[in-house]
Specification:
Blueprint (H helix, E strand, L loop, with lengths): L23 H10 L14 E2 L11 H7 L10 H13 L4 E5 L2 H12 L5 E4 L4 H9 L3 E4 L20 H11 L6 E4 L12 H13 L4 E4 L3 H11 L8 H10 L3 E5 L10 E5 L2 H14 L10 H13 L3 H20 L12 E5 H4 L9 H13 L1 E2 L1 E3 L1 H4 L15 E5 L7 H16 L7 E5 L5 H4 L1 E4 L1
This protein binds ligand F0G.
């Protein structure tokens, strides 16, 4: 029998960014002077940077060529019309409002639709979405399926909305709910996908209560790939067909183009309702820019348009999701506890099982992040107690059910040799886990404390 060929990167590398190697001693010093906060490191002090998959993608030659075609017109840029066409082809929404990044689209949407004291149900809010709801004095409500909180459950669509809970919530509070949202894939729950049947059913419930239904679409193509792999009836559909069906159930979306549009900056709000568009676009002039550029240069819009068409290519997604799985499988082989199944854009180390001797108030995921940096120059990001912040009424830490270190894989940037380094570094930290202690604050800012906090070792 001939061997089956291994799957390698579906691209050639034309431009490289050299990275400086550091020694373990240097890293131990640098993280200590950064107050044991990974956000305090300079990128040049990091060998493999897994802080985020946002704005860190390598663009294609086709996207770079598009950069040269930016017309930079204040009004009516040709690049805007190309972006609008790309959004209409993939997502099908009538109106497109470019914004400088995803959170700006959230800002405009909630400015228009949300009033003080109203609820926004979502499977699981991302921090900025939650932040914008709170900023309007709204109440974010997470209604994700209970499986999402079970780190080892093999449930294939842990991003699913709990439909019963949603129906019940709307029955009780519908007068106070201006819209329903769903985040695909579900970043805060481990990069877990939402099934097509769940998107459809969520939309039906929203329609029954006459509520607009919006998708937080950052990682829409990765979500579609999981549907193709895991959901019956979608094996033979193209990714584009799956994407079009997903969005056909929604009234609009917020999009951070820094993820699945394969660019370094940008986003948009896309929707069908002309009246909402009109109000959002006039507010947009104030916060973002004229509606045909929204805080972006023409060249940025061109790169987004091209990225949206590239990201639905199946060879790309096979490689992309395959690389994240490659890392996750290696970690499982080494016995390192991770959130399963392996998500779309990141592998999430399960700090509760990794460092069971460190209580949550001593920030086990943060301590793990520090050790992984010292071990291999790898920078992850804490998604745990530090990020969760404090409960405004009790003042105590708002302990999350999952305590994780996210190893977020930038798109088309690192090779599988880098994944090997990450896996060995994690395995080494795991082997010496009993010697690792917790952390305590030396500085804590009252808002978004994870960015600026400083710690000391216990
Ligand atoms: N929604 C989700 C699900 C996200 O993951 C992000 C960003 C946003 C909205 C906001 O988009 O950054 O363009 O303003 N997530 C990044 C991350 C920051 O690292 O997960 P943005």
């Amino acid at each position: 029998m001939p061997r089956s060929l291994p799957q390698a990167e579906p691209f050639r590398i034309k431009v490289v960014e050299p990275v400086k190697m550091t020694t373990r001693e240097e890293r131990a010093r640098k993280i200590e002077s950064a107050g044991f906060n990974l956000f305090g490191l300079k990128s040049t002090e990091v060998y493999i940077d897994l802080l985020t998959d946002s704005g860190t993608s390598a663009m294609s030659d086709n996207q770079w060529a598009g950069i040269m075609l930016g017309d930079e017109a204040y009004a009516g840029s040709k690049n805007f019309y190309n972006l609008q066409a790309a959004v209409q082809e993939t997502m099908g929404f009538a109106h497109v409002l470019p914004t400088h990044q995803g959170r700006a689209a959230e800002h405009l949407l909630f400015q228009v639709l949300l009033k003080e004291g109203q609820y926004v149900p979502n499977n699981m809010h991302f921090d900025t979405t939650k932040g914008h709801v709170l900023n309007k004095k709204g109440l974010p409500v997470d209604l994700v399926t209970a499986e999402a909180y079970d780190a080892t459950s093999p449930y294939p669509f842990k991003g699913d909305m709990d439909l019963q809970k949603l129906e019940q919530f709307l029955t009780e509070h519908h007068a106070q709910v201006p819209l329903v949202m769903i985040t695909i894939t579900c970043n805060s729950g481990g990069g877990q996908p939402v099934s097509m049947s769940n998107i459809r059913a969520t939309s039906q419930i929203a329609r029954k209560f006459k509520k607009p239904f919006f998708i937080d679409a950052c990682r829409f193509a990765e979500n579609a790939f999981f549907i193709k792999q895991r959901e019956k009836g979608y094996e033979d559909k193209t990714i584009l067909e799956i994407v079009q069906e997903m969005f056909s159930y929604a009234d609009g979306c917020t999009m951070s183009a820094k993820k699945d549009a394969l660019v370094n900056i940008g986003g948009f709000l896309a929707l069908n309702d002309f009246e909402v568009y009109q109000v959002a676009s006039s507010l947009g002039v104030l916060f973002e820019g004229f509606p045909t550029y929204g805080g972006l240069a023409g060249r940025d819009m061109e790169a987004i348009a091209r990225g949206l068409r590239e990201v639905v290519e199946e060879d790309y997604l096979t490689y992309r999701i395959g690389q994240v799985k490659y890392l996750g499988d290696k970690l499982l082989d080494y016995g390192v506890p991770i959130i399963e199944p392996i998500g779309g854009h990141a592998v999430y180390l399960d700090a509760i099982r990794f460092l069971p001797h460190i209580p949550q108030h001593q920030f086990p995921a943060q301590a793990l992040g520090v050790e992984l940096y010292i071990e291999g120059g790898v920078r992850g990001v804490e998604i745990g107690t530090c990020l969760a912040g404090r409960n405004p009424s009790t003042g105590d830490h708002d302990y999350p059910k999952l305590e994780m270190l996210r190893l977020t894989i930038p798109r088309r940037v690192y090779t599988n040799r880098h994944m090997d380094v990450i896996a060995v570094a994690c395995a080494n930290v795991y082997e010496r886990r009993e010697q690792i202690g917790g952390l305590e604050f030396t500085y804590e800012s009252p808002i978004l404390r994870h960015f600026t906090a400083k710690f000391k070792r216990m």
